[in-house]
Amino acid sequence: MELGMIGLGKMGGNMVLRLIQGGHRVVGFARRPELVASFVSKGMVGSASLPELMAKLPSPRVVWLMVPSGAAVDEVLSQLKPNLSAGDLVVDGGNSFYKDTLRRAELVRSWGCRYVDVGTSGGIWGLTEGYSMMVGGEKEDVDRLRPVLESLAPAADRGWGHVGPVGSGHFVKMVHNGIEYGLMEAYSEGFSVLEAKKEFGLDLAQIARIWRYGSVVRSWLLELVEQILTESPELKGVKPWVADSGEGRWTVAEALALDVPVPIITLALEARIRSREVDPFSERLLAMMRNKFGGHAFEKEQGK
After folding, report:
1. Which of 180, 195, 223, 270 is catalytic?
2. CB 186, CB 211: distance < 8 Å
3. 108-156 confidence digits (pLDDT tens)
4. Degrees (nearest 5) of the Cα angle 48, 49, 55?
5. Distance CA 83, CA 56 (A)
6. Alpha-carbon distance values, 7 to 25, 54, 79, 93, 121 (Å)
7. For 199-203, which contacts have Cβ atoms below 8 Å and span 24 or more sequence positions?
8. How far from 103 is each of 59, 98, 178, 304, CA to CA, in Å?
9. How many Cβ atoms are within 10 Å of 78's Cβ, its own excluded?
10. How far is 132 from 121, CA to CA, in rounded Å?
11. Angle at CA 12, nearest 5°, toward 8 and 13?
């Protein structure tokens, strides 16, 4: 199959390589010419602009977007519009907010084109392990993409599926990432308790290795925990600052709108936000409230 790939970042670039390995012809474009050149050397057909990319694809064309969620997707779509023809299929393989996907699908349909959303998980490991893909769209469009999806997945019949209409792929991926927040927080807290029990002299990497086999809590995340703790048992030089890319927030907001309680995902999101507070006002206020009502001592910062 032939398709165009727009966006050659870590995930998009690795997807290109996996598709090439699967026998597909991929025409790629990125804003950085040197990035395009690096993948041309690996078998991709390069293009210097979106019109050139579209001209190199047979009609009706398949164009796969791997750009950051938000305004970047709308920008690419506006640039694509003059180059699209009736029947062309646009795929958003990034992690867009599903309501934005519904809006974009309607827009692209008004141009006489098709739209599919693919919530994609796998990150930098996808090249070797395959990607988990949650696909939303019309059946005929998903069937058209089947050869690509089967090449990108861990196996042709494993790790991907057509989950529902347009928007559902990104919705399922949103919830997937919310669950991921909770799992990561649980592992982090549990290993913090183990690390605090100094008198046992526990080898945390060994414990992670034990739990990876036969344990109820075994997972790929636990495998990564073992790698991390083997490389740096005390995590020296790592700042306790955790970013969030938005999916956890979207999951919590959607859960509230649906009257579904998600306390673990919510607390995991709040823990990430708290990690980024350099000088938390709330803790300082707590200390002074205890001082005011009970005369409890509080610590002053040096030089203040």
Report:
1. 180
2. no
3. 999 999 999 999 999 889 999 999 999 999 999 999 999 999 999 999 9
4. 100
5. 12
6. 16, 14, 14, 10, 16
7. 203/233
8. 25, 9, 23, 52
9. 10
10. 5
11. 60
Active site residue 283: no
CA dist., res. 273 & res. 243, Å (int): 8
Crossing angle between the packed helical segments 139-152 and 10-21, to the nearest 10 degrees: 90
Q: Could you give the CA distance from residue 201 to residue 179 in angstroms, rounded to a whole number? A: 32
Query: Tokens at residue 119, please?
Result: 């919530």
What is the Cα–Cα distance from 300 to 304, expressed in whole angstroms?
A: 7
- Among residues 173, 185, 226, 254, which one is catalytic? 173
Structure letter (DSSP) for residue 49: S
Q: How many angstroms from the chain centroid is the CA of residue 117?
A: 14
Average pLDDT over residues 82-105: 97
Determine whether 180 is an active site residue: yes
Query: Which amino acid belongs to residue 147?
Result: P
The answer to whether residue 204 scores a pLDDT higher than 80 is yes
Average pLDDT, the chain: 95
For helices 247-257 and 263-275, the axis angle rounded to 10 degrees is 140
Four-residue CA torsion sign, 4, 91, 97, 219: negative
Per-residue pLDDT tens digits for 146-161 = 999 999 999 999 999 9
> How far is Cα 270 from Cα 255, in angstroms, rounded to an integer?
15
CA diameter of the chain? 77
